[in-house]
Amino acid sequence: MSLGNMKPNHNIEDEKWALLAMSIYDDDMKLTAGEKNKIAEELLTEKNEKEELLRIVEKVDLYFDLKKYPAEKALEKVQNKIRENSKRKSGKLRKLIANPFMRVAAAIIVAALLSIAGYEMVANKAASVRILEVSSVDQVVKSFKLPDGTLVSLNSNTKLKYPKRFGKDTREVTIEGEAFFEVKQNIHKPFIIHAGNAQIKVLGTSFNVSAYPRAKLVEVIVETGKVQVLNNLTKTNQISKLILNPGEKGTLVYSSNALLKTTNQDPNFMAWKTHNLIFRATSLSEVIGNLEKVYKVNIRLDDPKLNGLLLTAHFNDYPLEFILKVIETTFQMETQKIDGQYILKAKS
Predict the structure, then answer these.
(1) 132 SS3 class
(2) Which residue, of 102, 114, 141, 187, has the fewest CB within 10 Å?
(3) Partners of 12 in the beta sheet?
(4) C-beta separation of 182 from 216 below 8 A
(5) Phi then psi for 3, rounded to 5 degrees?
(6) What is the DSSP string of 159-227?
(7) How far is residue 257's CA from residue 197's CA, in Å, rounded to a whole number?
(8) Are 231 and 241 in contact (CB under 8 A)?
(9) CB burial class (10 A; 0-12, 13-18, 19+) of residue 221?
(10) Do the Cβ atoms of 181 and 223 come closer than 8 Å?
(11) For the chain, which residues make up each domain, given as ranges?
(12) Which CATH architecture has domain 131-263?
């Protein structure tokens, strides 16, 4: 019904009370305060009725604009207002307040206030658990501190999502890639990492997590403390949970959905962070794999037969060029760099 089609009526009908209530509350009508006032003027012809309802409309507009009210007291305030007005106003106004359709309108107003307050509470709660994301790009290792004091180092091409503020019972983050965690101890608030199809739970410890999607597996290697690893896709008769101690590795293999525990045999699992490389009769192919991961480069052996050569050495934060020189001298090789790629080949 448009404003132009409405006519004054001394006897307010049910459908017009409904229109009056809708004009006050229903956002879909998209009415301005002036249009709401005009509806009230056209529906209510007696002076006392118009003045009272216009005050109500103005109050509702004020609440909608400022939204500064305690939702739990909204109904009580409306009821008190009705009682106060009932004492002050004339018999005509008392009839107006007593009208069942006016009570419907009041109920709609209260519902509007409560719905807005509810929305604000949900919005405030959502804001308090706003999720942040930090990532490290190619060839960059990034370290930072989480809200609880936990230290995290991200390997290249890694993403970590965490809440701006942790909840009361847990500290939960999500990782895609590889990171080393030094978790701040809190026995009342376990630290939980979601990594692909695995979930890692700790109280206070240090460990490495590798969960690159392309690898189709999740690896957890513990340095200190204890770590619990859960398989989120457990099937019947398969291990669903592991407890890892220092020096142990947990692996979740996607292809078989198997959760395995072994002793960590890789002394370089943290070399991407520390640049501390240890090789004990290590095949040259494995050495190159470690160098590529730590220094973010591409290295290729010119002859596949060179893969089986064994290297024993310890490089503690040495430049890549120095390490390549050691390999050249040890195995009588030479290095060429073509289009950004290092190529190792036997001297002719």
Answers:
(1) strand
(2) 187
(3) none
(4) no
(5) -65, -35
(6) EEEEESS--SS-EEEEEEEEEEEEPPP-TTS-EEEEETTEEEEESS-EEEEEE-GGGTEEEEEEEES-E
(7) 9
(8) yes
(9) buried
(10) no
(11) 3-128, 131-263, 271-346
(12) Sandwich (2.60)
pLDDT of residue 204: 87
Question: Do 11 and 43 meet the contact criterion of CB atoms below 8 Å apart?
Answer: no
Beta strands of the chain (E only): which ranges? 131-136, 142-145, 151-154, 158-163, 171-182, 191-195, 198-202, 206-211, 217-224, 227-231, 241-244, 248-253, 258-263, 276-283, 298-301, 310-316, 333-338, 341-346
Residues 80-93 pLDDT 10s: 655 665 555 445 54
**Residues 196, 198, 201: CA angle, nearest 5 degrees:** 125
Q: Are 19 and 3 in contact (CB under 8 A)?
A: no
Which CATH number applies to 271-346?
A: 3.55.50.30
Token pair 């590529």 in the structure block, residue: 292
Question: Mean pLDDT across the stretch 193-199?
Answer: 95
Number of H helices and number of E strands within the chain? 9, 18
How many angstroms separate the Cα of 178 from the Cα of each of 195, 285, 287, 294, 340?
10, 22, 20, 12, 25
Strand pairing partners for 243? 228
pLDDT tens sequence across 107-158? 555 555 555 555 445 444 444 568 899 988 877 889 999 999 999 999 999 9
